């Protein structure tokens, strides 16, 4: 039997939500629970924990030999203070620090050192250095932020390093400095700079993934990050009793991994096992291996990560036991979780007698990131939860949908060197426009939570004027496929029917020829998927009439995808207009499968 460890406080705090209907059609929602007191910054909480339990494991990562390299709270604190002093001595505190490399112990030390002495951190997506062919996005980030120090751990990043700037590395990059070379014995100035930090000071400049637009540098202040962690502690009170243990791969260049998850460890006195696995066929087995050592208490992932891990847990009882043994929360965010995946996870947890709760939240880079949380039992995967304490949510009619807008202490003041963006980002009431559509799960009970209705910019209409909600239809299609599909792009704008371009799960890739023509068995399976979806819907906008398989994965450089797996629907439709045209061609081409 596997059960979560006992705790004095419950997993979830009972939500109490207040609502107010405005004459202009807006609906305002807020938690009746006020936001409690919090530290000035995450770094203040980190330093307090490092003094309270210096011998506790803080972070572990796999080394070149595949063994765990570990650092305690005390060791990381000492390294961060030494690096902070070295940065002060070399005059590297007037401009931001940009980190090119991924999650690591060095990355953590740099993050903490910079934040200690008030230097904004700019963590860049690894994909912009290693997966990009032209480094265009990275060059734009360097030009905008003008970093005084760049961090590139190994020679693989050398082509992406901006010329003429100091570089911190593990060695192998000409002219770079190592951590020891840049560090110095800390003096009183380090503590003094930390004591002078103010909530309004910028802690990080996080570039949005550009899922539906051009990436921009979002200002994350120390106060925003501290407020968001206090909000999470109030809705997940068990964190006050149990230092969180995480096994996590989510990149620190994104707000989910770098703010929500990492900061939860730093403010909760916990332990982070850096997962060298990924939600990809060649890498997911590393995650399975790491579970045996980490045995997390809370597991965070995107839906693609859960989808990759789930089959291994279903067929490997030992891995499932390691996963569920101490697990209190299973968490997904960044995209909708197909309902069939939710059901499989729930069944597996029941088989292992786990008291784990599945939950989610919603937010964005501009909200630190969490704005809502499902801190109550939920049975549907599209529920986003209710507003966190201290944040105000406005549901504003936009066309046929309700846009969710935000105001509160965890909301960004704006964008780095782009005051023009802030002018349009906030409405006349001071609420941040998010571009996401939601609905009330129960129109008569705001405490039942919000449900996701997609990105407003991605929706479209058919020639009949019928509105198609891409954010609703896409996860329904994936769920109906029962694991056959990994993602889909919904098509049919200004056309007579809703269609889709889809990517197959790697286990089924061999069932298409080089021209994208499915074999007979796959055609039958795809037709059955569309039939199951049609049986659930009630109109032309809720079914897929035709689909075609894409062989080429979504491309990062062209904006079709982000490095965390979000597929930009409009970018794919525009770049692959020839494939979209096939979906409406007559007679039906062999690459296209119609609804029977």
TrEMBL record:
<dbReference type="GO" id="GO:0006631">
    <property type="term" value="P:fatty acid metabolic process"/>
</dbReference>
<dbReference type="InterPro" id="IPR020845">
    <property type="entry name" value="AMP-binding_CS"/>
</dbReference>
<dbReference type="InterPro" id="IPR042099">
    <property type="entry name" value="ANL_N_sf"/>
</dbReference>
<feature type="domain" description="AMP-dependent synthetase/ligase">
    <location>
        <begin position="46"/>
        <end position="416"/>
    </location>
</feature>
<dbReference type="GO" id="GO:0031956">
    <property type="term" value="F:medium-chain fatty acid-CoA ligase activity"/>
</dbReference>
<protein>
    <submittedName>
        <fullName>Feruloyl-CoA synthase</fullName>
    </submittedName>
</protein>
<dbReference type="InterPro" id="IPR000873">
    <property type="entry name" value="AMP-dep_synth/lig_dom"/>
</dbReference>
<comment type="similarity">
    <text>Belongs to the ATP-dependent AMP-binding enzyme family.</text>
</comment>
<dbReference type="Pfam" id="PF00501">
    <property type="entry name" value="AMP-binding"/>
</dbReference>
């Amino acid at each position: 039997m596997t059960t979560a460890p006992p705790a004095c406080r419950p997993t979830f705090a009972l939500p109490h939500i207040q609502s107010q209907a405005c004459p202009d059609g807006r609906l305002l929602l807020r938690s009746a629970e006020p936001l409690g007191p919090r530290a000035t910054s995450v770094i203040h909480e980190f330093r307090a924990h490092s003094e309270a339990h210096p011998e506790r494991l803080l972070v572990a990562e796999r080394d070149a030999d595949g063994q765990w390299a570990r650092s305690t709270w005390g060791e990381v604190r000492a390294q961060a203070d030494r690096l902070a002093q070295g940065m002060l001595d070399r005059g590297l505190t007037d401009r931001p620090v940009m980190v090119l490399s991924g999650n690591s112990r060095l990355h953590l030390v740099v993050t903490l050192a910079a934040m200690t002495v008030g230097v904004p951190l700019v963590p860049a997506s690894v994909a912009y250095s290693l997966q990009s062919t032209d480094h265009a996005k990275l060059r734009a980030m360097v030009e905008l932020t003008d970093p005084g120090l760049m961090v590139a751990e190994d020679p693989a990043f050398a082509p992406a390093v901006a010329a003429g700037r100091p570089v911190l590395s593990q060695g192998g990059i000409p002219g770079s400095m190592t951590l020891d070379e840049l560090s110095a014995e800390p003096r009183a100035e380090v503590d003094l700079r930390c004591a002078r930090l103010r909530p309004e000071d910028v802690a990080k400049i996080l570039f949005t993934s550009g899922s539906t637009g051009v990436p921009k540098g979002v200002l994350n202040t120390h106060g925003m990050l501290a407020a968001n962690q206090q909000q999470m502690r109030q809705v997940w009170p068990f964190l006050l009793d149990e230092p969180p243990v995480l096994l996590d791969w989510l990149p620190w260049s994104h707000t989910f991994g770098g703010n929500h998850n990492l900061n939860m460890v730093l403010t909760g006195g916990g332990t982070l096992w850096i997962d060298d696995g990924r939600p990809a066929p060649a890498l997911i087995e590393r995650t399975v291996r790491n579970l045996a050592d980490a045995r997390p208490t809370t597991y965070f992932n995107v839906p693609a990560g859960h989808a990759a891990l789930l089959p291994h847990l279903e067929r490997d009882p030992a891995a499932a036991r390691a996963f569920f043994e101490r697990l209190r929360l299973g968490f997904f965010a960044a995209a909708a979780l197909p309902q069939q995946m939710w059901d499989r996870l729930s069944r597996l947890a029941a088989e292992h007698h786990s008291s784990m709760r599945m939950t989610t939240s919603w937010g964005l880079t501009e909200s630190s990131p969490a704005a809502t949380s499902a801190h109550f039992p939920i049975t549907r995967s599209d529920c986003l939860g209710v507003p966190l304490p201290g944040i105000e949510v406005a549901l504003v009619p936009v066309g046929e949908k309700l846009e969710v807008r935000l105001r509160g202490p965890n909301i960004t003041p704006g964008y780095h060197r782009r005051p023009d963006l802030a002018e349009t980002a906030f409405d006349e009431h001071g609420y941040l426009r998010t571009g996401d559509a939601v609905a009330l799960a129960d129109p008569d009970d705001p405490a039942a939570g919000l449900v996701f209705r997609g990105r407003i910019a991605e929706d479209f209409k058919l020639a009949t004027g019928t509105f198609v909600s891409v954010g609703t239809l896409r996860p329904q299609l994936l769920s109906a496929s029962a694991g056959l599909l990994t993602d889909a792009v919904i098509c049919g704008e200004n056309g007579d029917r809703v269609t889709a371009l889809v990517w197959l799960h790697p286990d089924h890739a061999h069932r298409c020829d080089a021209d994208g023509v499915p074999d007979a068995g796959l055609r039958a399976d795809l037709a059955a998927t569309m039939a199951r979806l049609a049986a659930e819907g009630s109109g032309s906008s809720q079914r897929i009439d035709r689909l075609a398989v894409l062989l080429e994965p979504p491309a990062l450089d062209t904006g079709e995808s982000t490095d965390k797996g979000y597929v930009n629907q409009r970018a794919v439709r525009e770049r692959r207009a020839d494939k979209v045209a096939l979906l409406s061609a007559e007679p039906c081409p062999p690459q296209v499968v119609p609804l029977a």
